[in-house]
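# nightly structure sweep
# worker-07 picked up a monomer target from the shared queue
# config: single-sequence mode, recycle default, output format = structure tokens
# input follows
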Amino acid sequence: MLNSSKLQMKRSFLLFLGCFVLLPLFAVDSGNEIAVKVVANKNNVLDVQENYQLFFDSPRHGFYRVIPTNSSNDYMVRVSDIRCSEKFSVDRQSGNVMVKVGDPDRLVSGVQHYTLSYSYDIGADQNDGYDQLYYNILGTGWQLPFDRLDFTIQTPFDLRNDRIVFSRGAYGSVGGNVNYTLSDDGKTISGTAYGFAPGEGLTVNVRLPDGSFVGARDPIGIARGFFVPYLALLVLLLGLVFALYLKYGKDEKLIDVETFDPPDDLSPMLLAHLLKGSANDSDAVAMLFYWADKGYISIQEEETGKGMFAKKSYTYTCLAAAPKFTSTAEEQLYHVFLGATPVVGMSHDPSQFGSSFVEGLRRAETECASYFEGEHSLKNKKSKRAKLLAILLGAVAFVVLSIALGKGIPAAAIAPSLLCFLLFLVLYVPTDRLINHSAGKKIFSKAGKIVGISLLFLIVCAADFLIIEFLLAFPTALSFRYALGTGIFSLLLSILTAAIEKRSPYAQQILQQALGFKSFIEYVELDKLKRLIDEQPMLYYHLLSYAIVLGLEKKVVEEIRDFPSR
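# output follows
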């Protein structure tokens, strides 16, 4: 059966479809007959006439006749020149042509007769090595029985019985006994079939020599004709997003100038949030050495046992009950380590802390984000507005892309474009996180970013395909094209949009200071460092607190371990 009839199996809430599907608005008991006459032309246009005899067991206005326009080979069929013996209206939606047959102002019952005709333009044959006349005489979408089906198929071709195959039964059925006759001139097939249960259909498949169809419309031409201008518009929209990136999203290059001092008024925990996007327990512990350098606490080291049983333990003592803090996060953390009301002279043992201590750490670490607001904001205000504009342009671009992939049918593109845009947002959010996790943007390696974004890309493509294939019931090949096209476009748009994240002047200045301070710790000469610590013994804590955040604590500990002032 024609691929489009699988819509019935995929969406029970949609109109029942076959190659030609009828969804009645009435209940039918018996006496239903249909006669189908098809005139096949050399340009692969079928002139179809359908004569119905239907029995209405109660007053009804008429019935719906749905003609799908998505073929099994994923190209669009054109339906035109629709005529009917009764009043009718036509609605084209979701890639289908829906004909509503009947007078909306008049009810009828009993046996009724209708004649419906139209032109069904399949387009040039897409098979390799042969041409094929493939037609659903009766689609599987019928939900009522038929007592009798008469059919006649007139062609301009010389037909052979061994090249004519009928399939009868439910969707997916192959074979079935059908009595037919081939005219003496070998050009016309006619026959009669009886006793069709609801959901059963009849399909004819005639294999013809390659090149039998002449002058047929290029079915892909619809896509080409619409795709080129839409593609140009799509490139323009992507170009606008790229222009926004160049103007508002490209960070200035950081200048690495070695400096002895850490960033102004920035504690190790705040620096960790700046560089990595969040602070962790190690960064919180670094604050103990920071406070020791400031003179707020003192740290004691004790060693018990000897040799292989030697064990070191640490305690710290409060030296300042209410010191001056640079941020709310630091104040919260100070009270986490030294209690709600710090007492000068009271010592604390970190090994004795319980679950409340851990919860306090989490709150303090989370509070770091509030520091980087207002004048301390890490993001450029103009880049924020530019990013929002880029997302809006992306929404427009998805509509354009969906129309292009849908071969120029705007109505059919609305649902997939909305769904694909939502999936774009699903891809964009973690991509933005990977690219802009911190002002320093160094937390994820290049390989990590590539792997992460690639996995997200595959997930979005799979989700696109499943939604379009099974929820919207598009043909498989069309669903694949949608999924791949929207997936690639989502990836490009996500990366470009996420990249529109320019650092604020404040973030630029602080990062340069942090980079210079890191270079100092990393490359300072040992003799110079020894001299500095001899002059300022507490400098050890000062360097160690920031070295932990910068990932250089091992270097500091190993190089300073044997200094007398240590």
